[in-house]
Amino acid sequence: MIRGQYCPSCGRAIASGLGACPSCGAILGPGPVYGTQNSYPKIVPLFSGNGYIIEQKILALRDTFGIKDQSGNQLAYVKKQLVSFGPKFWYESTDGQRLGEIHGKILALRPTFEIYDAQGQLQAQVKKKIMKLIGEEWWMENASGQEIARIKGNVWEHDYRIQDPSGQMIAQIHKKWISVRDSYCVEILNPSFDPYLVLSYAIAMDNTEKKGDKKLGFGPHF
């Protein structure tokens, strides 16, 4: 298991040598700090494993994704709002409970998505680098604007790697070509990072890839 340096209280990526977490203020002891899977509460408790499958439902009236665990058990759905000021998705449990939301910001100069929890609290933002000659690159910030992850991908192979600010692996996302619908495999390599944020990035990336930045109203794309 590749481990990154994370706050054991809130799970956010932190730099070495800090006496306190810049995100939550938790006091840090001497030496390296490595969060563990159970060291902080998950934003969505349903997402606490290390492997997921995201499948698009091809017969749905709206863009709808099903999220399953590695054993094929249905955990939740992600549904796109039909009429909204910019792309908007919400997470829904199998019994209809709202779990969180993803909002696309249409007035941003670059593709930008905000990730919220069930209480409407902003948890993170993902933003796409628009001046990239080869491949794709996004980054993720926490609610305070601190970068917590960098995402790099091969647009032709649909393979994306999520790394912490120090370059250590957090997760990997790969598109399955044998499926009749869009399907992504998500592997969490560092359990300190919340799977909800990784899954939300995959939804945002898929939406941007398929629709195109100009169609979404995100402004110029270079």
Q: What would you say this structure looks like, in words?
A:
This protein has 222 residues and is mainly β. It has one domain (51-213): Tubby Protein, Chain A. The chain is built from 2 helices and 12 strands; from the N terminus they run ββββββββββββαα. It is globular and about 50 Å long. Mean pLDDT is 79; it is low at 32-39 and 213-222.
Low-confidence stretches: 32-39, 213-222
Distance between the termini: 37 Å
How many individual β-strands? 12
Could you say which overall geometry the principal axes of the C-alpha atoms support?
Answer: globular
State the order of secondary-structure elements, H for helix, E for strand. Answer: EEEEEEEEEEEEHH
The CATH class assignment is Alpha Beta
Spatial strand arrangement across the major sheet:
1-2-3-4-5-6-7-8-9-10-11-12
> What share of residues is helical?
under 10%
C-alpha Rg, in Å?
Answer: 17 Å
